[in-house]
Every structure is written in C-alpha cells, then in structure tokens.
Amino acid sequence: MLLVTTADQVSVADAIDTELGHRQNPNLVHTTGHTMTTLALALALGGDDAGDVELLSPQVATGLIDQIPSDSTVHRRHKELAHHDEKADGVGTIAVLAGMNTARTTAWASCGAANPAARATTTNPLVVDLDATEVLSHSDKEHATPTWKKHFG
Fold first, then answer.
1. Taking phi first (over 0 means left), then psi (-120 to 50 degrees means alpha), and beta for anything else, what does residue 7 get?
2. Model confidence over 15-59: pLDDT tens digits?
3. Which of 8, 19, 75, 132 fits a disulfide with 95 by CB distance 3.0 to 4.6 angstroms?
4. 92 lies in a domain?
5. 141-150, pLDDT tens digit by residue?
6. How far apart are the first and last CA of the chain?
7. Residue 125: inside a domain, yes or no?
8. ∠53-134-146 over CA atoms, to 5°?
9. Burial of 10 (0-12, 13-18, 19+ CB in 10 A)
10. Rounded alpha-carbon distances, angstroms, from residue 57 to 38, 42, 48
11. Number of domains into which the chain is organized
C-alpha cells in the first residue's frame, strides 16, 4: 500500500516522536508518533474512529506494518497529547505538527527535480488548484442542520 510505504520512508512516526522528545515515556511499545501515523492511515482507508485501526490488519500480514495499536492505546495517546496541550500551552499539538512538517520536507526533498515547487519561479509560479467538492457525511449531533444541499457535509 502506497500510503503505508510513504509514511514509513519519510519517517512520519519518528519525526513526531523526535519533536515530542522527553515528553513521552521512552519505554512505550506504541509511541505517540506510531499511534498517530497508524490512525491517520486507518482514516485514509475509510475509518472514522480509533477502533478502525484494525483496517490495517491485512498490512501486518504483508509485513508493511509491524504492529497495530489497540483502540484503547490510540485513545490513551490522544489523552496524553491533550494533557500536554493543557499543561504546556499546546505543546502536544505543536509537536505533532512540527513532526509532520519534518516528514513533509523529507518527502518533497526526496523528489529532487521532480518536485513541482523546485521548478517554480516568480515568473512561473506554482499554481495549486483546489477542488471544492463537498464530502458527504452523517451527523448524529443534537440540533444538527443540513447544508443548503439538504445533507450533512
């Protein structure tokens, strides 16, 4: 699976763990970086909550992923990040974002001349065309109202 391989090659989990540094227990089997990366991959596969990390089970059989954290481990890591945020003014979120930035920089740097930003100049800028397609979702929230297209999204 391309996403799993890419996340591994650009070391997303390691970058997040490096940014968290001494803030997490060094003896963790599933570090915060590993857990958040696993959850992101599960969401990319169509999951919608922490229990959906099991969507990655087939990847364990292929050897692309070594271990999958349980949904309770995912919840604990989220709680720890939230605790860091409460205690130290957003340091948990900042660490995750900084780790993602490091991984993104690594990924783009590995592209070399194929990186579209490497060819951009002031006279030939890189244009990013964003699609405004509405993604449909359901809502179980109390008093939720649909969009003007008569659905939730």
1. alpha
2. 988 988 877 888 888 888 889 889 888 888 888 888 899 888 888
3. 19
4. yes
5. 666 666 666 6
6. 28
7. no
8. 95
9. buried
10. 11, 10, 16
11. 1
